[in-house]
């Protein structure tokens, strides 16, 4: 827990919290409504179950938050610092990082973890990898990323089996989005295995950067 942290680790955690507070001050209060909507939409995605009746509502909530209704999507999960210490600021720090890293993201917080969806495919994954490599050079910084891609059009076939299409001619379903988010979260868990530093996982793979 925090009692075992050295001075360097405490300083990094404090700096991250200060950066998150400064970012929030610059973007409040308008950002509050955006984040509340994103938290609600992503909570529904995390709670999604096959055969449920709320797919149309979830798809509408994601679109309301700005998620495009066609094209590939990237799901990213992130924990910052020692999230297991239950520092209240760290999940918000993780959200801020995802908002800065991703284009037009729908970014929310669930427990100690930040989760985001953003338009993009393999090109965006490459950009995320480059940014993570740069962050890895920051001493004592601990970040665990998990990334998953939902290809454009992947939801069309699934629509006849599970999930509600986002709209006519769209490329994703709620089932597909929920699956991508679940994969990203699993990849994040693997990336956070003992070893520390900044790490990124792709689906079920683990990569130290």
Offer a few descriptive terms:
single chain, 209 residues, alpha+beta, six-stranded mixed beta sheet, 7 helices, 6 strands, globular, disordered C terminus
Short description:
This protein is α+β, with helices and mostly antiparallel strands and 209 residues long. It contains 7 helices and 6 strands. The relative contact order is 0.16.
> What's the overall geometry?
globular
Give the H and E element order.
Answer: HHHEHEEHEHHEE
Indicate the proportion of strand residues.
15-25%
> Which structural class best describes the helix and strand composition?
alpha+beta
How far from one another are the termini? 25 Å
Compute the number of strand runs. 6
The radius of gyration over CA amounts to 17 Å
> Helix coverage percent of residues?
40-55%
Q: Which regions have little confidence, pLDDT < 50, spanning 5+ residues? A: 154-164, 204-209
Oligomer: single chain
Total of helices: 7
- Overall mean confidence score, pLDDT: 81
Strand order of the largest sheet: 2-3-1-4-5-6
Largest sheet: 6 strands, mixed
């Amino acid at each position: 827990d925090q009692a075992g942290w050295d001075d360097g680790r405490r300083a990094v955690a404090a700096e991250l919290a200060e950066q998150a507070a400064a970012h929030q001050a610059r973007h409040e209060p308008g950002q509050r409504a955006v984040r509340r909507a994103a938290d609600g939409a992503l909570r529904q995605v995390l709670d999604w179950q096959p055969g449920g009746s709320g797919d149309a509502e979830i798809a509408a909530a994601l679109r309301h938050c700005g998620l495009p209704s066609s094209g590939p999507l990237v799901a990213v999960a992130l924990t910052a610092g020692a999230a297991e210490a239950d520092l209240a600021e760290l999940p918000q720090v993780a959200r801020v990082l995802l908002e800065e890293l991703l284009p037009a993201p729908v970014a929310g917080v669930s427990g100690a973890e930040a989760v985001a969806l953003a338009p993009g495919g393999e090109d965006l994954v490459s950009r995320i990898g480059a940014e993570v490599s740069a962050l890895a050079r920051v001493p004592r910084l601990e970040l665990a990323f998990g990334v998953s891609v939902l290809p454009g059009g992947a939801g069309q076939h699934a629509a006849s089996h599970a999930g509600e299409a986002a709209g006519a001619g769209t490329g994703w379903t709620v089932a597909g989005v929920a699956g991508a988010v679940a994969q990203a979260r699993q990849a994040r868990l693997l990336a956070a295995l003992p070893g520390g530093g900044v790490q990124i996982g792709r689906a079920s793979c683990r990569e130290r950067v």
